[in-house]
Structures are given as C-alpha cells and as structure tokens.
Write a structure and sequence with these properties.
Helices cover 29% and strands 37% of the residues. It contains one helix and three strands, in the order E-E-E-H. A three-stranded antiparallel sheet has the order 1-2-3, covered by helices on one side. Strand 1 and strand 2 form a beta hairpin. The radius of gyration is 13 Å and the shape is flat.
Length: 70
C-alpha cells in the first residue's frame, strides 16, 4: 500500500453543488487533506479543479522551492 496516496473524490451534498475533496487513507479511515472552498456548478468543473489541486500538491512535493502561479 502506498502511504502517500491521495484520492480525489467529487461530492454533491446538495443537488447542483459539487465539491472536490482530496483524501488520504489513515488506517481504516480516510481523512481530508484539501477541499474546495465553495461549490462548483458541475461535476466536471469540480473534477478539473480537484485535479489541479492534486497537481499543485505533486509539484510542491517534487519541487519544494519552486513557486507556483494560481
């Protein structure tokens, strides 16, 4: 098992309000490590924003001194 693996999920707690969540396995539970600050209008938009957040985390791990533009 990869102890550094992060999963991306998209949640729709209210119809038409999509949130991305990055979560990490913590024993038998999952804990959130990052999440959308507000709702997205579509599943696809939330997924793309979550992928971008996941990419930023990856970039920060491989280039800790590099600055990223948002």
């Amino acid at each position: 098992m990869d102890t550094e693996a992060i999963s991306l999920i998209v949640d729709e707690p209210i119809a038409g309000h999509f949130y991305w969540v990055l979560q990490k396995q913590d024993g038998s539970d999952c804990r959130p490590v990052d999440a959308a600050e507000g709702p997205m209008p579509t599943y696809g938009a939330a997924m793309m924003a979550g992928i971008a957040a996941l990419q930023r985390r990856s970039d920060a791990r491989t280039n800790p001194g590099a600055q990223t533009l948002h």
